[in-house]
Amino acid sequence: MEVVHISAECYPVAKAGGLGDVVGALPKYQQKAGITSKVVMPMYRTPFLYASNWVVDFKANAFMGAWEFEYTIIKEANNKLGFDLYLVDIHGLLDRQKIYGYSDDAERFTAFQIAVVHWMSHWSHKPTAVHCHDYHAGLIPFMMQHCYDYQNLKDVPTLLTIHNAQYQGWMPWAQSMLIPRWDLSKKGLLDWGGSINPLAAAIKCASKVTTVSPSYMKELMHHANGLETLIAAEKNKCVGILNGIDHEVWNPATDSYLTEHFSPKSVTAGKQKNKENICAQFGLDPTKPLFVFIGRLVGEKAADVLPGALHKAIQTYGTKASYMILGSGEPAVETAISNLAHANDHIVKVSLGYNESLSHGLYAAADFLLMPSRVEPCGLNQLYAMRYGTVPMVRSTGGLQDTVVDMGDEGGYGIRFTHASETDIVDSIGRAIEIFDNKKHLLWMRERMMQINHGWEQTVQSYTRVYDSI
Ligand code: ADP
Ligand code: GLC
User: Fold this and answer.
1) What is the arithmetic mean of pLDDT over 251-270?
2) 306 C-alpha to ligand 2 centroid (Å)
């Protein structure tokens, strides 16, 4: 079996969030299970590019509208990641420092997809399946089936994984000429609500669709940022498969970002040493419970509620706890959080930006991880937190609901709440402070969480069943 993953992100090559983690890990564990798994992604100017050796695999010209462009497929030479990694170099378009956030992202990802399909149409063999991740690869199933130049790929099965349906890659119809000569009678497959919608097109054209947790699959029928009726109509080809975590990368006993390693047996002392390091670095009191938030500061993550909620928590619980936020996103949220930190210097700290190393340090140091997400298709933070003995505090939604059992329920080890509201967050912080003082129960919860197996092995099997079915 040979699977080709197409994605905008793949850790450690380029990562903006959980998509990168998943595409860095799933293929690695598929390889271990005997599946030939490849990743194809854009060539950005990231540190990984310069720290690795590359060989040119293919070079050709393709068209995007009237623009003829040259693309080069380079392959990582030393099997560093445990699977074949291919980067698509389109000079001037993809080779930039950031993954997203440019005004020409629609052209960038369309050109990327054209190059991938053009290249695959020149292969001497056909892969078992083409596995597309999110909207950045959403036009691929359509192009394989309905672009005249790629008809030799027409029968190759395709799978779409929706990591997040909030982002759909909408393009005005004026941009339809970017897509290589296609069967105009199939216009309806590209359209959703009057614009080209790459995610909707993939839902319509892919042989099967997966999302990253069973609960999110159900939620999408009712909340899918405008795609509800489409998902409901296609429900027979949709399935929710919970993500795994790469336990080789995320292991507190070996994590290369940590100086103080620990296992379930040494969790109390190990976490305390990590907390002392972080607290010394940021000027916090290591004897208090440490609450952290790590993530994109956007509405989906309910980051806008955090400043008000933490302000109320400080009013309610005073100096009983410390709070640390790592993330970047909406400027208004960044400002509100920075102001809160400024006004409560020894209680709240913030680090704006993306910092892989600090994120590992925080999972290890924190007592509690806050995730009040409004939308959370799977969520990896809570899984990493658990692996590092950090109690997850999550809103009951999507993958959070599928992975965290409230400590009030039998065998429970986390804190769950219903609303992304200041009141629910403050009340949950109160429950957390109580459990922090009950050292025996806290230790039981930490040991319990750390031993839950969220490894990729079972997820790989679920995906294999999907490939088999198509
Ligand atoms: P999403 O993909 O929606 O952002 P996930 O929970 O699936 O959410 O994954 C987020 C990933 O990104 C995790 O690996 C988390 O540690 C990481 N992450 C998010 N924000 C930051 C940040 N500011 N610095 C470092 N890592 C971050
Ligand atoms: C998306 C989702 C997140 C999920 C990740 C990996 O970014 O927002 O919940 O964990 O993809 O699938």
Assistant:
1) 98
2) 20
- Any bridge partners for residue 407, and if so which? none
Q: Is 352 helix (H, G, I), strand (E, B) or coil?
A: strand
Burial letters 370-397, b for 16+ CB under 10 A, else e:
bbbbbbbbbbbbbbbbbbbbbbbbbbeb
Locate 226 and state its tokens. 């405008």
**Which of 9, 381, 390, 404 should be mutated for ligand 1, with most atoms under 8 A from CB?**
381
The angle that helices 356-365 and 267-282 make with each other, rounded to 10 degrees, is 130
Mean pLDDT of 285-301: 98
Architecture of domain 2-244+457-469: 3-Layer(aba) Sandwich (3.40)
With a 6 Å cutoff on the Cβ, whether 359 touches ligand 1 is yes
Are the CB atoms for 83 and 2 separated by under 8 Å? no
Q: What are phi and psi of 261, to 5 degrees?
A: -90, 155
* Bridge partners (DSSP) listed for residue 368: 291, 391
- Where does ligand 2 bind, in terms of residues with CB under 6 Å? 17-19, 22, 163-164, 212, 243, 376-380, 399
- C-alpha 251/C-alpha 230 separation (Å) is 40
The residues, ordered by sequence, that sit 6+ positions from 261 with a Cβ below 8 Å of its Cβ are: 252, 253, 254, 255, 270
- Please provide the average confidence, as pLDDT, over all residues in the chain: 98
Cβ 28 vs Cβ 245: under 8 Å: no
- If you take atom 12 of ligand 1, which residue's CA is the nearest one? 17
Ligand 1 atom with minimal separation from the 376 CA: 3
Domain spanning 264-450: CATH superfamily? Glycogen Phosphorylase B; (3.40.50.2000)
Query: Look-up: residue for tokens 């109390």?
Result: 268
Distance CA 63, CA 184 (A): 18
pTM: 0.97
Q: Partners of 211 in the beta sheet? A: 162, 240
Query: β-pairing, 290-297 with 84-89?
Result: unpaired
* Residue of 98, 136, 293, 296 to test ligand 1 pocket, by largest number of atoms within 8 Å of CB: 296
Mapping DSSP to helix (H, G, I), strand (E, B) and coil, where does residue 74 land? strand
In DSSP terms, 392 is beta-bridged to 369
Which two tokens mark 137? 């690869």
User: What does DSSP assign to residue 61?
Assistant: E
Q: Whose CA is nearest to atom 5 of ligand 2?
A: 18
- Asked whether this chain's domains 2-244+457-469 and 264-450 adopt the same fold, the reply is yes
Q: How far separated are the first and last CA of the chain, in Å rounded?
A: 12
Residue ranges of the domains in the chain?
2-244+457-469, 264-450
Dig out the tokens for 367 from the structure: 């007592």
pLDDT digits (tens, 9 = 90+) for 446-467: 999 999 999 999 999 999 999 9
